[in-house]
Amino acid sequence: MWYVCWGTSVTSGNRLTHVWDASAYLIAGDEPTLIDCGSTEGYAALKRDLKSFGYAPKDIKRVIGTHGHWDHLSAMAKLQEESDAQLFIHEADRRQVETGDPALTAAYLYNKPFPPARVDGLLTHGDVLDINGYLFEVYHTPGHSPGSVSLRTEFHGLKLLIAADTIWGGYHPRIRSSLEDWEKSLDRLLELEFDVMTTGHCPPALIFDAKRHVYEARQQLGVYWNPWFKPFHSSFAATILKGLLESVVQAVPFPFRPIARARPARRAHRTSVVCSTAWRPIYQRDNSLGFTEIRLPVRRAFLARGLGSGTAQ
Ligand SMILES: [Zn+2]
Ligand SMILES: [Zn+2]
């Protein structure tokens, strides 16, 4: 079980539910709320993870959609079958979720349908959502998709930015990506104050030194685009093999375990994974965008930060 921050838990993501899943967060409390809910492929595993936190799908009151893509929201229709969960999303990504448009939902990348889901409310820039006593500010950050939003909240004095695919999401006109909008969105995020960040596809982890990474993403934006990479579904076997290999590495007892370094991300959407020894702060630089990930439960991350070693080198 992983915690991003006290009060917010990661329930879904490529390390937890399914390799194609985006990260989903649970804000526990009287009105259990998810930020994104992952894909149809990961739904069974999402239920398993919710159960580990003491919840069932029927308990979920609402889902805040960061944007209308398959890996973030295609499980919503199923969740709505099993609960009264309401879906909130930005207007600009609304229609694709209601229709399941295979291009606009990016479902074509996965060769799977996007079951249309009911949208119950809209998110607008400047909204402040009170979710179980935590305030989440909504920032409209289009670019990856027209309706992408980022959320900022504060837990025990730590400002957390949930940037979703605004950081590290893929670009393509087919999903209505816009470099011009994306530049403005990153500039908008750079004006914000935040201490730590999570993205839509990182392992369950907090990214410290977050502002620098957003700045580097801003510098990187639009520098290079290679359209010849394989879509997700055609590289699925390779992804599974990679996961198995990492499992084997993790099974080797410390101190004999090597620090296995994943190959650089070949697409913007693929998570670059750091495989570290457990319970030791390992800071490792990703080869594509320079992200440094700290794969630790948050208490250890706080400890490392307190010792002054939590800042990426
Ligand atoms: Zn995504
Ligand atoms: Zn996306």
Structure description:
Helices cover 24% and strands 19% of the residues. It has helices spanning 43-52, 70-73, 76-82, 94-99, 179-190, 210-220, 236-251, 298-306; strands at 3-5, 8-12, 24-27, 33-35, 62-64, 86-90, 121-123, 128-131, 134-140, 149-155, 158-164, 196-199, 284-285, 292-293. It folds into two domains: 3-220, Ribonuclease Z/Hydroxyacylglutathione hydrolase-like (Metallo-beta-lactamase, Chain A, 4-Layer Sandwich), CATH 3.60.15; 232-306. It is an alpha/beta fold. It is globular, with a radius of gyration of 18 Å. The strands form three sheets. Strands 1-2-3-4-5-6-7 form a seven-stranded mixed sheet. The two termini are 28 Å apart. Helix 5 packs antiparallel against helix 6 (210-220). The chain has eight helices and 14 strands. The chain binds zinc ion (2 copies).
Brief summary of the model shown:
The chain has 313 residues and is of the alpha/beta class.
Structural topology:
Blueprint: E1 3-5, E2 8-12, E3 24-27, E4 33-35, H1 43-52, E5 62-64, H2 70-73, H3 76-82, E6 86-90, H4 94-99, E7 121-123, E8 128-131, E9 134-140, E10 149-155, E11 158-164, H5 179-190, E12 196-199, H6 210-220, H7 236-251, E13 284-285, E14 292-293, H8 298-306
Parallel strand pairs: 4-5, 5-6, 6-7, 11-12
Antiparallel strand pairs: 1-2, 2-3, 3-4, 8-9, 9-10, 10-11, 13-14
